[in-house]
């Protein structure tokens, strides 16, 4: 699949989301940050918004669920038309069952790790996952500073994927910009969320293409 850029609409004008998405036509997916004000101290969208967005764009939707009780709440986002559904392992009681349920509903199953959550206890789950998300900020808000301390975990996650021989995508999210994307790509990430870097640019679509070219040049995978 190569390098993918998935702009986050978290810091855009929520009254014009269709237009905001039309400004990033080079995006591989649109990253939709779902927050419930419990798992994180911020509140955004629910499944009905994901369903409306899936009607408004042909770009696949990448739903990042920062919500409690993922086992019960995540499947609704696959039913709403998200192409990829990411639950946080810290909010899931039965991550294997949940990943299988998401796949059975026709979406890609993805699991996220907060910065302080290690990958090693979950390495045997990798074959159940289409994507692993390593957070590079504490989840909850856009525009935060990239946490360099997450880079070794990205490297370890890529090594575990190679050990298990899986095709699981490795996504990074939080503070990704032209300044930080090279480090993530060198460490083995192949799917890059960028919110403020894309939408604060004068030309968001040109920024998507620039981020992709920068990651491709730094990646050992392409
Ligand atoms: O999940 C998130 C925050 O919890 C967002 O996807 C992320 O922060 C994107 O915004 P930025 O690129 O501005 O950091
Ligand atoms: Fe996110």
UniProtKB/TrEMBL annotation:
Record InterPro entries: Aldolase_TIM, Ribul_P_3_epim, Ribul_P_3_epim-like, RibuloseP-bd_barrel
Catalytic activity: D-ribulose 5-phosphate = D-xylulose 5-phosphate
Pathway named in the protein's UniProt entry: Carbohydrate degradation
Co-factor(s): Fe(2+); a divalent metal cation; Mn(2+); Co(2+)
Pfam family, one: Ribul_P_3_epim
Keywords assigned: Carbohydrate metabolism, Isomerase, Metal-binding
Signal peptide boundaries: none
E.C. number(s) listed in UniProt: 5.1.3.1
Catalytic site positions: 33 (proton acceptor), 173 (proton donor)
Binding site for substrate: 8, 64, 140-143, 173-175, 195-196
UniProt-recorded name of the protein: Ribulose-phosphate 3-epimerase
Gene that produces this protein: rpe
